[in-house]
Structure formats: structure tokens, C-alpha cells
Write a structure and sequence with these properties.
Shape: globular
Distance between the termini: 26 Å
Oligomer: single chain
Low-confidence stretches: 1-29
Number of strands: 16
Largest sheet: 6 strands, mixed
């Protein structure tokens, strides 16, 4: 899930003031006849998203004088380190915004409440099972529990220069009929001319993007047998890696200048027509909508498909601290905060996809403006990311997969060498996390 820098020091001070000491969320209790007080840690960071979060908290507080929620601003940069300290000290907020990869460890350590018997029927039925799968983890004692409510997800799409797309004569893909990877490669070749390229692949952080798209061909990168998880890089996992590499070095349809860049870094070149297609997370549409030069026309296209159109998903989540003094009231707030109408507001503010089926049907989520119709339609292809359940994934990603894939996409090692590194070095990392 996208994690964007904020002022960590300010976040720590804010969290300490709002959650620490005598005023802590999990420790808070109310005197008789006083309202129940709940602390809500939010990691919203974009201006629109923060405004939507605060507006919903205000609406709740006005409608529920007996259950008052305090909005606490956190930061993706340091949230998990901060929560470890707060959980240990019994000062964690009652309601915690995070993403699904972080929940597994907190759940197995007993810090998060299992919500499966507390979820209101309407909320449970509004969110499809694949999204619930992203928040279902082992409790450390062999039982499966639900440790958060999933509410925002990200998919991969292609942002295209409409003028160059139209001029190429390539078929324009739709959610019901996306390009195959072969069609995608052919279209990129058609758009490569005059020193400009068909596509750009910013690969400064290559892991989540390639692993999520690998599911197009059934590539999971991990396998579990007899309770032991190991890394797997077979034909299915190699498909997307090889196809991106071919665009760079065989077809020469991918702009090599973008390789070392972060997701948004190629946008100035994109606006100048240096390349026509930019595969990216749906949230990047916001920067294009707000920053593209006047007169620049762009469209959102669905990601290509392989043997399927499946993509891996993680979710942004709301959880309840195990030590919260007011778990029932916290769940009532979550059910309000994440109802269909409110999820649509949150998704619009964050330029991401709501898990709520009611929210996905909201006219704001299906308009053609800024590609919302294509973005929202892509949610049907999201399934639980295989790496989500892997203990040690973060270390494998940081120490093994990121440098190995960077070398491979820079053409410094072969795909066989990359596969060997991912598996052999990766299994050494995972071995330390096996129970």
C-alpha cells in the first residue's frame, strides 16, 4: 500500500500527546454520565483525505454525544514502531488505521482484537470475501481471526497519453476487454518512434508492482508445505519479469531513463510526450489530474492480462486495540466510518478503490472523469496478495528482492541469476521466521 513521507517528529509528538500517558486511548475510561472517549489514529496524509477523515469524525461526534471520538494524526513513516511502543505500554489508540501487511505480527502478538464476532452484518456483507481475506490471520495459537476492516485498496492501471494512443492505431483496451500482455507489448512498439518510447517502467521500488502483476500468470513467488514457506521462482513467476525486460532490451520500447525512478518521477517526461504509457497505481491519477499542463489529454487504461487479469491486493484497514476499554463503541464508530457512502468519500479523497460494494456503485466512483470508471472496475480483479501471509516478507523484499530485481531490470544479471538469488538468498531470510 502506498506509504508517503510526512513529518515523523510532528507525528510522534502528536501521537504522544494524544495517546500517551494518562490520556491514552486503550487506557481511557469514562466517569459515570460522561461520554465514552475513543482515540482514532488516522494515517490519512493528502489534503482531501485528511479533510474527509476529520469531517466524518465531526459528523459522528455531533450525532453521538455519548461516544466521542478524538482524531489523532499519525504518519505512515513511523506508525508501526510507534505502535510497538504503545502496545507494550498499554497506551495504544482504540481505533487504529494501518495496512494489512502490518496486521499479521500485531495479531499473533495479541495486540489486536479479533473482530469476527463483532462485525455488523451490513458491514460484513458489503465488503467482498477477497478483501476480508487480506485481514484474516493466524492468532499465533492456530486459530484464524479477522484483525481489521479493509476499506481502501490499490490496483495497477496504465495512464496513457491520449494523443499518442490515438495516433498509434492500437486498440483501446476496456475493463471488459483489456490488452493481453502481447497486445500491450505490440502497442508499446507502435508508439516507439522519433526518439520517444511506448512505455516507461519506474523501478526504483520494483517488488510490489511486479509481484502483484505476476498473478496475471499465476505467479505467487512463495509456496508453503508442511508449515514451511519457501521462495518460488518458476515459469509463472518469470512471465511478467521477462516481458518487462523484453520491452527494455529486446523491443527497446521502454524508456531506460525511467528505470531508476520512483513512480511519479517520470511524469514531467510523460507530459512532454517522451513516452506514451505509464503503468502505475491508481492513486497516481491524482497528480496527473492536478499537475498536467493545460491541454494535455490523458486516459486511464486497465492493466494487461495474462492467463487471468488477477492482481495482488493489500488493504488499508481499521483495527481495534486488544486493550481498548471500549471495543463495542469502537466498532460502532468503525461501522459508521466505513459505510458505503463514507467509503466513497474516503476513496475519492485518497484516489484509491473502496472495498464497499455500495461505495463502488456510487456515481462518484463510476464517472469517466479522471478515469474513475476504469479504476473502480479494476477492483474486481483484486485477490489477496500471496506475500501478505509470509512472515519475513518485509526483510526479503528489502534485502533480497529489491536489489536483485533492480539488477535484473538494469540488465546486469540474467533471469536465471535473478531467480537463484531470490530463492537461495530469500530462503535464508525466511528460515529465521519459521515457527
Amino acid at each position: 500500500m502506498r506509504i508517503t513521507s510526512a513529518l515523523a517528529a510532528a507525528a510522534i509528538l502528536t501521537l504522544a500527546a494524544a495517546c500517551g500517558g494518562g490520556g491514552g486511548g486503550a487506557q481511557s475510561s469514562s466517569a459515570p454520565n460522561e461520554p465514552v472517549k475513543i482515540n482514532f489514529l488516522s494515517l490519512a496524509w493528502q489534503k482531501e483525505s485528511v479533510a474527509a477523515n476529520k469531517q466524518l469524525v465531526d459528523e459522528w461526534n455531533k450525532a453521538n454525544p455519548n461516544i466521542q471520538v478524538t482524531y489523532v494524526q499519525g504518519s505512515w513513516d513511523n506508525v508501526n514502531d510507534q505502535l510497538v511502543t504503545q502496545f507494550a505500554g498499554g497506551t495504544a489508540p482504540d481505533v487504529i488505521h494501518n495496512d494489512s501487511p502490518a496486521l499479521s505480527g500485531f495479531a499473533s502478538d495479541g495486540y489486536l482484537l479479533d473482530l469476527k464476532d463483532k462485525l455488523p452484518a451490513e458491514l460484513k456483507s458489503d465488503i467482498p470475501q477477497p478483501a476480508w481475506d487480506t485481514v484474516t490471520f493466524d492468532d499465533g495459537k492456530g486459530q484464524q481471526g479477522v484483525y481489521g476492516v479493509p476499506f481502501l485498496q490499490e490496483s495497477q492501471v496504465i495512464i496513457a497519453n491520449k494523443k499518442l494512443l490515438d495516433a498509434s492505431g492500437a486498440r483501446v483496451p476496456t475493463p471488459d476487454n483489456p490488452w493481453t500482455w502481447d497486445e500491450f507489448s505490440a502497442a508499446a512498439k507502435k508508439m516507439t518512434k522519433g526518439g520517444n518510447f511506448g512505455v516507461a517502467w519506474p523501478m526504483k521500488s520494483p517488488v510490489n508492482k511486479t509481484l502483484n502483476l505476476a498473478l496475471n500468470f499465476g505467479g505467487t513467488f512463495f509456496q508453503t508445505a508442511d508449515g514451511k514457506t519457501t521462495v518460488k521462482v518458476g515459469p509463472e513467476e518469470r512471465e511478467v519479469l521477462q516481458r518487462i525486460h523484453d520491452q527494455l532490451y529486446k523491443d527497446k520500447s521502454a524508456d531506460p531513463a525511467a528505470l531508476g525512478q520512483g513512480t511519479a518521477d517520470p511524469l514531467p517526461a510523460f507530459y512532454k510526450g517522451k513516452f506514451a504509457l505509464l503503468p502505475a497505481g491508481v492513486y497516481l491519477r491524482q497528480q496527473v489530474a492536478e499537475q498536467a499542463p493545460e491541454g494535455f489529454e490523458w486516459v486511464t487504461l486497465p492493466a494487461p492480462k495474462g492467463t487471468s487479469a488477477q492482481q495482488g491486493a493489500v488493504s488499508q484497514t481499521l483495527s481495534i486495540a486488544q486493550d481498548s476499554k471500549h471495543p463495542d463503541e469502537a466498532m460502532k464508530f468503525i461501522a459508521f466510518f466505513l459505510n458505503g457512502a463514507n467509503q466513497a468519500k474516503l476513496a475519492k479523497g485518497d484516489w484509491l478503490l473502496p472495498t464497499s460494494q455500495a461505495a463502488a456503485a456510487d456515481p462518484a466512483m463510476t464517472t469517466k472523469e479522471n478515469g474513475w470508471d476504469v479504476a473502480t472496475a479494476s477492483a474486481k480483479n483484486l485477490v489477496v496478495a500471496p506475500f501478505l501471509k509470509v512472515n519475513g516478507f518485509d526483510e526479503w523484499k528489502t534485502k533480497v528482492a529489491t536489489p536483485t530485481l533492480q539488477e535484473y531490470f538494469a540488465n546486469k544479471i540474467t533471469i536465471d541469476q535473478a531467480a537463484s538469488k531470490l530463492v537461495e538468498d530469500g530462503n535464508k531470510v525466511l528460515e529465521r521466521y519459521q515457527r
